[in-house]
Design goal:
This protein is α+β, with helices and mostly antiparallel strands. Helix content is 27%, strand content 32%. It folds into three domains: 6-97 and 189-219, 3-Layer(aba) Sandwich (D-Maltodextrin-Binding Protein, domain 2); 100-186, Periplasmic binding protein-like II (D-Maltodextrin-Binding Protein, domain 2, 3-Layer(aba) Sandwich), CATH 3.40.190; 222-289, Alpha-Beta Plaits (2-Layer Sandwich), CATH 3.30.70. It is flat, with a radius of gyration of 24 Å. Bound molecules: phosphoribosyl ATP and zinc ion (ZN).
Amino acid sequence: MSEERLRIAIQKSGRLSEGSFDLLKSCGLTISRDKDKLYGRVREMPIDILLLRDDDIPEFVADDACDIGIVGQNVFEEERLEGAQDKPAQEVMTLGFARCQLMLAAPKDWTFDSPTMLEGKRIATSYPALTRAWLEKEGVNARAVTMKGSVEVAPRLKIADTVCDIVSTGATLDANGLKPVANVFSSEALLIRNANAFTQGKQEIYDALLKRINGVLTSRDAKYVMMNAPRSAIEAITEFLPGADAPTILELAGSPDKVAIHAVCRESVFWNTLEELKKLGASAILVLPIEKMMA
Ligand code: PRT
Ligand code: ZN
């Protein structure tokens, strides 16, 4: 039986891998793969996984070798600006992990007050297209020098005056005597797809997977919040609940002045949220995780 299968490209190992595997797992997919192989097979749905270097993912998806893929926005946008493909892959949605920033960084002893300070300077980067686009937007005439790795050592080696590199905690810059001075591009993991229409079979698998991904993303920060509160405080509490739809209000037996309020909060519920709710008169506040959610 020839069954159509959707092919997904994800990073084999690196900073996108764990988040990509976790997302697929949260969608109820188990991937059987040999450790060294470049290929995985999903048991629950007709889906194959190709494990690649992140830089190859946009091209594999653009070329139809894979149908969809997960890649950093930084890599996707760099390749798009370079115009590497005739018909580039399309962005579907951001996925909320592998967040980082492409930052312009300068030696710590620089007093950096404006991008015009970069006029005539050499900037070492693995992202020359993104860097040039930013320089153009800022109206600065500087040179982007392409380096594939160890960009942060370039100023010390006098290869460049400054760098434009990916920053997450900032520890690497700090250890190399550099400080971030301007955000060139903010990035997170991105779902991309081939630009051509899928066959009906593939489209059905894609739609089913996308529904699950959406469900996972919306329930990730969501919490079910329950509390008791004075009837008079319903409005104030409802307004305060982060990202909540209309809450459910329930009678409390034997307490005509009090109600139970139940709500789904779609944004993070922090300790200070609970403290504020308490100030508004809420008591017996419970915050429960939501495992799955589908609109
Ligand atoms: O082998 P392959 O080519 O697949 O992987 P890779 O080594 O090219 O990429 P990888 O795994 O390092 O990163 C994949 C993607 O993760 C990147 O394209 C970004 O979208 C995202 N990401 C998130 C990061 C970081 N955080 C990050 N911190 N990519 C790189 N870094 C590096 C950065 O280059 C610098 O060397 O980490 C260092 C800075 O980290 P801090 O914490 O010291 O600031
Ligand atoms: Zn890479």
